[in-house]
Design goal:
By secondary structure, the chain is an alpha/beta fold. The chain has helices at about 1-15, 35-50, 70-75, 110-130, 170-175, 190-195, 205-210, 240-245, 245-280, 300-320, 325-340, and strands spanning about 20-25, 55-60, 85, 135-140, 145-150, 165, 180-185, 200-205, 220, 230-235, 295.
Length: about 350
């Protein structure tokens, strides 16, 4: 009996990696496609399988944990969990320099957005290292942040005087410059705010709005990317990162690029087209039942006006708030890629 027990214990030890690492991972919104289609499969299946059991993962999401959106990265830096991912704009209250990652109206396609993100990544890495004691692993997009209105509109100028929920601080500044009133409402509270008149319009990704049922409390859709692409940053606590072996670091960085980041970007452009079709009924909806929101055309004049306000007012104001050499760094990286210079 003792011999059998010893053999069983030995076989158990041999079947378990001696240096197995367990990662506690906090994902983004559990109800949205980015998490369900890309985050959850990567952390639950792809990475553990690729590591041969050397890395195990305990996955939850920030909304399942009822975390304050502004607390997600500070808690990561403190080591409350090992990995976290959410919209970078949730962290800009005390980190204004991070707003330079996701600038509205600059990128109109997924390829342009990824080029912008890639150019900004060295800056983002420095911000997360210095502000949140963490190492950036990936930056993935939500689709462009468009405008849902429970109010009749026919062009961009009709937002003037309306109360609009912004998806980030730079978007709020842009809306205010357009004559709207930027209102701070959390994503989960938007349907009630639209229904009860707390806001007239709200900015989010078309797919996010479809998944969350914003079409039930909105009538008009303005598909201009006033909220940028709402970049989602995945980062790991720096102390945890430094404790991993070089092989583990290389595995994680290689797998997260090919198994999460690249697929999320590859689907982003088609997602916008499909999501608009799902919300308006203009085309086939691969996600479910098509809805009947009114699609508002974005004219060249609308876009030119918004872009002029962005480059003439919003970006210079951000440069002043961010301080330091952030504007110069942005000009030399993102600005060169997108052809915009902050004066």
């Amino acid at each position: 009996m003792k011999k059998s027990l010893a053999l069983l214990m030995a076989s158990t030890v041999c079947s378990t990696p001696v240096f197995a690492e367990n990662l506690s991972v906090v994902g983004s919104w559990s109800s949205l496609p980015l998490h369900n289609q890309y985050e959850a499969p990567f952390w639950s299946e792809t990475l553990p399988a690729a590591s041969g059991g050397d890395i195990t993962v305990e996955l939850t999401t920030h909304n399942q944990m009822s975390l304050g959106l502004g607390d997600i990265y500070p808690l990561l830096g403190q080591g409350v969990y090992d990995v976290a991912m959410t919209v970078a704009d949730y962290a800009v209250a005390d980190t204004p320099e991070l707003e330079g990652l996701d600038v509205p109206l600059i990128a109109l396609t997924a390829d342009e957005a990824r080029a912008m993100v890639d150019a900004a990544r060295p800056m983002v890495a420095d911000i997360y290292r210095d502000r949140f004691n963490s190492h950036v692993l990936a930056i993935a997009p939500y689709p462009p942040q468009v405008v849902f209105c429970n109010h009749e509109i026919s062009n961009l100028a009709d937002l003037e005087g309306l109360k609009v929920r912004a998806s980030g601080r730079m978007t709020a500044k842009l809306l205010e410059a357009l004559g709207a009133e930027g209102v701070n409402v959390s994503f989960s509270e938007v349907p009630g705010a639209l229904q009860n008149g707390v806001v007239d319009c709200a900015v989010t990704g078309a797919g996010s709005g479809y998944s969350a049922g914003w079409w039930e409390v909105s009538t008009h859709l303005l598909p201009i990317p006033l909220g940028g692409w709402d970049s989602v940053v995945t980062a790991i606590n720096m102390d945890k990162w430094n404790s991993l072996s070089d092989d583990q670091k290389a595995l994680i960085e290689g797998e997260i690029k090919t198994g999460f980041e690249d697929p999320a970007w590859a689907s982003a452009q088609d997602a916008l087209v499909n999501d608009i079709a799902c919300l308006t009924g203009n085309g086939d909806c691969p996600s479910g039942d098509a809805r009947s929101m009114t699609l508002v055309d974005v004219s060249d004049a609308d876009f030119a006006r918004a872009r002029d306000i962005l480059t003439g007012e919003v970006l210079p104001e951000w440069a002043e708030r961010a301080g330091g050499d952030w504007a110069a760094r942005w000009n030399d990286s993102v600005g060169k890629v997108v052809g915009v210079t902050i004066n």
